[in-house]
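User: Could you go from structure to sequence for me? I need the amino acid at each position, not a summary. Structure tokens:
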């Protein structure tokens, strides 16, 4: 049990929900188009990201507990703290991790940069892991099924997980229809590198007093684990470690470059400028699927079994005779009764659809030094607003509500501060900054900053950074 919990913490703190509230509607950053293809990019002539460095994102979260809950030096035993944590967590608590790396990206405005349309394109790699807390199986592992737990029904349907690694090729279209409305669309091609998921399971386990033995164990199961991209890796056999690593990298590279299981998806979004100072945005991301028909291996248990222990025969005792095949037959019987069926049937995985919506109010016009008057229309230094985020998950959607403040400190430096309430914490304070050196842009963003006072109490952490070249249509709205 200790090892299990330590592994969980290593996984989730190495890389939470995919909310990017600091980046969303940050107009100076071209990556905002990835969250809303209808973002306001009217000042962009063209842009391109530094390959492999334009967007690096790691994000992790665990709801319901922190490392401090288990390892605090408070005089209580570790077993006592484990028990308290296990019984406090619900089956809807989650462990999540998300990582994204933009391989390349770019965008341009056609027709001598006077067009109202803006096209963007690129490729990124993503890892997404989402695991629900297996409440009943964890309590069974901790307490066992004897004593007071006789006749207790354990729901193994609590086992619900998904994990995938993929690359995404995309092409986006953005158009400013008029002074009020900008809309956009992004088409995506998914190439799966690795996928494993087990959702919507239905399984019960319970123990009763037996007739031929002390206990009877009953398992009623309808459980399926789908996987793709795993069998080929498992079958790699090489005594040379370097050669084995080369084979794995070759398979990953081939799958990343459209040689894996493929799928299609799209994003849509818009920006509505209600007035000079008040605007609304909305977007839907990753409406799509992947069809897994290559290197598929599925494991299925759909059966009901009742077991009252194992009757062991010992030669020479109680008249038992020598039987050379007894142990082999026993192991074969157990293997047949409890081993899952393995198939290679194709399956479809749906991408975790995400929704964003925001309201923003700009204020505080910049003063023109030459005439001591306000600058041109739209040249505001401050903005406040709210943003709502939601992501579809197998059981329940996850939501996050953010209030934000944007400040243009200078033509060189822009800041955005956020306060977010979500499933993981009600005290998520974030800060993002965008710096412009001519057309060269650097940004850095971090979430849940208050947790850095004591990382052992953190339930969610996030980091984003990147480097771009952004060329404006006007005489430098980023730096003067």
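Assistant: Here is the amino acid at each position, in order:
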């Amino acid at each position: 049990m200790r090892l299990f919990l330590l592994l969980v913490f290593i996984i989730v703190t190495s890389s939470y929900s995919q909310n990017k509230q600091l980046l969303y509607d940050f107009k100076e950053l071209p990556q905002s188009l990835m969250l809303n293809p209808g973002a306001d990019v009217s000042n962009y002539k063209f842009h391109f990201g530094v390959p492999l460095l334009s967007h690096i994102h790691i994000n992790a979260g665990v709801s319901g507990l922190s490392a401090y809950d288990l390892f605090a030096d408070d005089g209580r035993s570790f077993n006592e703290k484990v028990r308290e944590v296990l019984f406090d967590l619900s089956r809807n608590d989650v462990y999540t991790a998300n990582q994204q790396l933009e391989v390349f990206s770019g965008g341009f405005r056609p027709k001598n940069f006077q067009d109202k349309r803006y096209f963007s394109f690129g490729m990124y790699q993503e890892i997404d892991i989402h695991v629900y807390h297996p409440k009943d199986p964890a309590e069974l592992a901790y307490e066992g099924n004897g004593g007071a737990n006789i006749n207790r029904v354990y729901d193994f349907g609590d086992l619900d997980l998904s994990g995938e690694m993929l690359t995404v090729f995309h092409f986006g279209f953005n158009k400013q229809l008029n002074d009020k409305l900008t809309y956009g669309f992004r088409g995506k091609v998914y190439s799966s590198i690795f996928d494993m998921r087990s959702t919507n399971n239905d399984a019960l386990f319970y123990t009763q007093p037996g007739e031929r033995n002390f206990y009877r164990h009953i398992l009623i199961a309808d459980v399926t684990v789908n996987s793709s991209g795993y069998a080929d890796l498992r079958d790699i056999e090489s005594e040379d470690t370097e050669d084995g690593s080369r084979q794995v990298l070759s398979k990953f590279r081939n799958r990343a470059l459209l040689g894996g299981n493929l799928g299609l998806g799209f994003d849509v979004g818009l920006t509505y400028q209600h007035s000079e100072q008040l605007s609304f945005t909305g977007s839907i991301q990753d409406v799509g699927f992947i069809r897994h028909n290559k290197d598929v291996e599925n494991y299925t248990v759909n059966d009901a079994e009742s077991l009252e222990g194992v009757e062991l025969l010992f030669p020479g005792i109680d008249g038992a005779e020598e039987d050379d095949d007894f142990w082999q037959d026993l192991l074969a019987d157990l293997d047949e009764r409890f081993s899952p069926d393995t198939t290679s049937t194709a399956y479809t995985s749906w991408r975790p659809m995400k929704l964003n919506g925001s309201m923003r109010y700009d204020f505080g016009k910049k003063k023109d030094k030459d005439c001591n008057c306000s600058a041109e229309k739209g040249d505001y230094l401050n903005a406040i607003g709210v943003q709502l985020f939601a992501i579809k998950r197998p059981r329940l959607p996850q939501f996050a509500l953010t209030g934000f403040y944007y400040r243009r400190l200078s033509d060189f430096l822009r800041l955005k501060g956020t306060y977010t309430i979500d499933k993981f914490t009600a005290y998520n304070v974030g800060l993002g900054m965008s710096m412009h050196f001519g057309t060269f842009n650097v940004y850095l963003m971090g979430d849940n900053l208050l947790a850095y006072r004591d990382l052992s109490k953190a339930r969610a952490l996030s980091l984003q950074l990147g480097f771009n070249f952004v060329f404006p249509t006007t005489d430098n709205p980023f730096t003067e």
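One structural detail worth keeping in mind: The mean pLDDT is 83.
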